[in-house]
């Protein structure tokens, strides 16, 4: 099958690098072998299952939806303002190995050794991209409704032994897919909200788990590109757009600004939570299909595999073969590059980012405050004498915050995607720490976390910068009298 992929528009190459990482996230995990238990349950992200399926098929929901916010100029150029919508996903392709029998018939097998090379049955995937055309932004409200079909197919690849005699064949099969994409534009407080929904409309009933995944869209995500308009960040909207941004609703798809930092013409609607302008580290030599891991760790793990394990990984999938070959061919210098970079934390301060908000600019561009080691180098144990996490305090908004203080969390530095779930939560400070680069970090536990006492006992804390915290009185009037003190243990509800 030829993938449904139009020519890449100018300016989308950088975005496609991130989009491909989303597309193949979890496709195949270390140790990249079909026999590994973790690779027997795949396709975790962006799966849109068939709408008609038996309970035992465990099919995913058939749809996802996202809403983005745009600014459209009031001048004559608004008449031509539009957004191009592209839908990308994987179509599952069953790779079935069949052994040739003496009578000329074929029998499906899990593995077949052909001329000393193992050939495995496996589920591959084919990249698909649908260009849904342009959504005009000059009609209020406006809407589009596109129904598209991705054809199925079957191809056969003969297998011959070392003498050229037929030994079997590989049969690749794909189910046809049907998907509907709807868009709608509505005005909201001077801005334009663009809603996009994607639904799997596969007509047949999926009777089991295999049938369900074969009729699913996998790794589904959206690429939106605006012409004559600008997208607004929903993660960090300007004050004027904040109320409209808060009214945007997402369902299994989260839009972020994509492309070079500062650009506002492209949005990636991903099935996983990302930051605005996500990037692939320039030191990464290639995909490993596990973006939550560190390239260096996975590369070193691959290097420790036995030759038999590597042979099975190569036989599992062509993309696994690329990973094994790339790791085997990596030089010591290339491996060292994966170890990370050492940057001077006390170098010249960077200028504020373009479009930075607030009197202090973008906090991510601020250099950390210096930390006094009494003249001792940071690696000298004597430097530790200048800090005492259990008693040190940091002044926030004129209030000294130390162990036992109550604060409200307002994540802004984007240290972790989970931070957005902590927004507005009340927390208890457990320590104030300084690092060797001069930064100050406040360790805390969430007051409403039932496991807060256990986390405190283990020393497992969340860490935030002082400018992400709002000091609260000893008893926050907005929370009532149920906030436990530093030594008070939360009581279980007897009901």
Q: In short, what is this structure?
A:
The chain has 495 residues and is an alpha+beta fold. Helix content is 13%, strand content 32%. The strands form five sheets. Strands 2, 3, 6, 8, 9, 12, 14 and 15 form an eight-stranded antiparallel sheet that branches. A five-stranded antiparallel sheet has the order 7-10-11-1-13, with no helix packed on it. A five-stranded antiparallel sheet has the order 21-20-19-18-22, with helices on one face.
3D shape: globular
Radius of gyration, in angstroms, nearest whole number: 27 Å
Low-confidence stretches: 1-10, 343-370, 476-495
Structure classification: alpha+beta
Contiguous helical run count? 8
Number of DSSP-assigned strands: 22
The overall pLDDT average reads 85
* Beta-strand content bin: 25-35%
The helix/strand series, from N terminus to C terminus, equals HEEEEEEEEEEEHEEHEEHHHHEEEEEHEE
Helical percent range? Answer: 10-25%
Amino-to-carboxy terminus distance: 59 Å
Characterize the main sheet.
8 strands, antiparallel
Give the SSE map.
Elements: H1 13-23, E1 63-71, E2 82-100, E3 106-109, E4 111-114, E5 117-120, E6 122-136, E7 142-150, E8 153-160, E9 166-174, E10 177-188, E11 191-200, H2 209-214, E12 217-227, E13 230-232, H3 242-246, E14 254-257, E15 266-270, H4 295-303, H5 307-316, H6 318-328, H7 332-337, E16 394-396, E17 399-401, E18 406-409, E19 426-434, E20 440-446, H8 452-458, E21 462-464, E22 469-472
Antiparallel strand pairs: 1-11, 1-13, 2-3, 2-6, 2-9, 2-12, 4-5, 7-10, 8-9, 10-11, 12-15, 14-15, 16-17, 18-19, 18-22, 19-20, 20-21
